[in-house]
Amino acid sequence: MPIKVSIFGAGSVVFSLGLVKDLCLTKGLQDTHVSFMDIDEDRLDVIHKLAVKYAEDLDTKLTFDSTTDREASLKDADFVINTATITHNEYFMKRRREMVDSLGYFYGGCGMHEYHNIQLMLDVARHMERLCPDAWILLAGNPVFAGTTAMTRDTSINVCGLCHGHYGYRQVANTIGIDPDKVTWQAPGLNHNIWLTDFFYEGQDMYPKLDGWIRNNIELYWKEKEKDGGIPTQMSPSAIHQYRMYGLMPIGDTPRRGGWWYHTDIETRSRWFGKGGGNDTPEGRQKVLERKEQKYQQMKEAALNDKTRPIDIFGDKQTSEQHIPIMDGLVNDNEGQFQVNVRNDGALPGIPDDVAVEVPAIVNKKGIQPIRVPPLPNKVMLECIYPDWLGMERGLEALKTGDKSMMLFGILESHQTRSYDQAMRVMDALFEIEPNEPMKYVEDIRDHYQWPDNWDVAPDPPSA
Fold it and tell me: What are the angstrom distances between the C-alpha of 257 and each of 25, 117, 192, 261?
C-alpha cells in the first residue's frame, strides 16, 4: 500500500535528494508519495523539480508535492523526516559566531543552551499528534540528543533520531588496513558521544592491532595527511588523545567535541585537529559554506536545465543514510540492524529510561527494538556521558520553565567565560541578535525567557 512521507525542512536540497534517491532504489517503497515542506520557496522548487526528474530517470512511481504549509505536508503522513533547523542555519550560525567571538569566545563556544531548534521539534511533534498520530518522526536535524529526549517525553509520537557519525568505525578499520565490511562493531552512548566498545575482524579483537598501528604509524600518518588535504577528524590527534584518556576509541562526531582544552583558540585547534584547525573554525566553516553553495548551484542547474539529468550527476547508488532502510523495515518487514537514538528504557545501563541514547536496534514490522548493551566503563560514564546528560537536562529545564537564569548559568559554566559581566554581555547580545527568517515560526526567545521572580530583590554588585 502506498505511504506518505513528509520531508520537513526539504530546503536542505542535497540531503532531500539523497532521500528521494534511496526511495527510488528501494523496491517496496517505489510508489511512495513525498511531500516536501520548507519556508524557502526557491529551494522547494529546486528539490521538487529534481525529484520528479530523478524518479523519471529511475522509472519509479514516486509522486511529489511541495508546500510551505506545515499542516498540509504533515496531514496523514506515515513518516516525517525532520531535517529543519533554525539556529543551525549556516549563515545565521556564522553571524552568531562572529558576534560571540567579538565578546571573547572562540568559535561561538559560549555555552548558551539550545532553544529554537528544540522548540521547533516539539511544535512539529505536537502537530503530528493531531494530523498523523501514528506516524514515525525520523529526526535528522540537530540537536538529536536533546530533541529526541524532549519529543519522547512531551508527546505521544514515535520518535527515532538518526545520525551518520557511527560510520567513523569504517575509517578506523580502513586506516589500520582491514575491510570495514567484515568488521563486527558496537559504539553506544549519547548522540555525538559514542564509544567503540567492540571492534572485531573475522572473530579477532582489533584493539591490539589498533594499538600497534598507533604506536608505529600515527606520526607519519598525520604528516602525510597534512600534505594531502588535512587530517581526518576520526584519526586526528584529538581522537587518539581521547582514546588515551578514556580507554575507548571515540567515534564519528565524538572527537569533534572532546573537552574544552581542544578548542580554546586556533593554535590549540591546529594542535589537536591539524593545520588550520579543521572544519570547526571560522576558516573551515567558510569553506564548508562555499562547498554547500557550489553544490546547491549545481543542483539548481540540474533542476532547471531540461538537458541535464540528475542521474548523470548524482548516480544510481543508494546512500549510506539509514532513514529509508528503516522505513523499509517498518513497512515491508525487511529486517535490519541500525544505529538509532531512541528512548533508553534500559538499553544503556546507568542512564534513566526517559533519556534518548544511541544504541544498535533491530528494525522490522514490529517496530524499532533497541538492543541492550553492556555498561560503558565507569571512567567514560563519569567523565563523558554523565556531564553531557546533565548539560542536556539543564537545557531542557530552561526551555520548560523559561528561567533566564538557567541560560546564564550555562554561559557561566563555559570554560571560555572569564567573568560574570562577560557572561551577561554575551547573553544579552544573543537574546537581542537579529533573528534569521525561520525564527518567526517559533515563540520569540525574548518573550519565553524571563528572570526568576526574586531576581530584583537585590541588585548585582558593581563591577570591579
Answer: 35, 19, 8, 10
Share of the chain above pLDDT 90, in %: 77
Tell me if 342 sits within 8 A of 360, measured CB to CB: no
Show the domain range for 199: 166-186+194-283
Q: How confident is the model at residue 296 (pLDDT cuts 50, 70, 90)?
A: confident
Residue 461 CB contacts under 8 Å (≥ 6 apart), including other chains: none
Longest dimension (CA), the chain: 72
Just list the catalytic residues: 164, 253
Question: Any idea what DSSP says for residue 345?
Answer: T
Which whole number is the average pLDDT over 162-178? 98
Residue 59: left if φ>0, alpha if ψ -120 to 50, beta else—which one? left
Strand 198-201 to strand 204-205: parallel, antiparallel, or no bridges (unpaired)? antiparallel
Do 439 and 392 form a contact (C-beta atoms < 8 A)?
A: no
Cα gap 248→195, rounded to integer Å: 6
Task: Tell the residue number behind the cell numbers 528521494, with chain if given.
Answer: 20
Q: Is the residue at 218 inside a domain?
A: yes
Q: Select the more confidently predicted residue: 245 or 305.
A: 245
* Coil, helix or strand at residue 120: helix
Burial label, 393 (beta-carbon count in 10 A; 0-12, 13-18, 19+)? middle
Q: Which of 68, 89, 72 is nearest to 127 (CA)?
A: 72
160 within a domain of the structure (yes/no): no
Give 390-407 as a DSSP string.
HHHHHHHHHHHHTBHHHH
Looking at residue 443, its pLDDT comes to: 65
Give the start-end residues of each E strand in 252-375: 336-343, 356-364, 367-370
- Strand 79-82 relative to strand 4-8: parallel, antiparallel, unpaired? parallel
Which three three-digit cell numbers place residue 165? 557519525
Q: Residue 4: helix, strand or coil by DSSP?
A: strand
How many residues are recorded in the chain? 464
**Assigned domain for 95 exists:** no
Distance separating alpha carbons of residues 406 and 113, to the nearest angstrom? 9
> In terms of Cα–Cα distance, which of 140, 147, 180 is closest to 163?
140
- Do residues 87 and 96 lie in contact, with contact meaning Cβ atoms separated by under 8 Å? yes
Q: How many independent structural domains does the chain possess?
A: 1
* Grid cell locating 373: 548493551
Tell me which residue has cell 573551515: 284
The more confidently predicted of residues 436 and 333 is 333
> Does 404 map to a domain?
no
Output phi, psi for 115, to 5 deg. -140, -60
Nearest one of 286, 200, 194, 283 to 234, comparing CA atoms: 194
CA–CA gap between residue 397 and residue 401 (Å, rounded): 6
Instruction: Check residues 62 and 459 and name the one with the higher pLDDT.
Output: 62
- In this prediction, residue 289 carries a pLDDT of 81
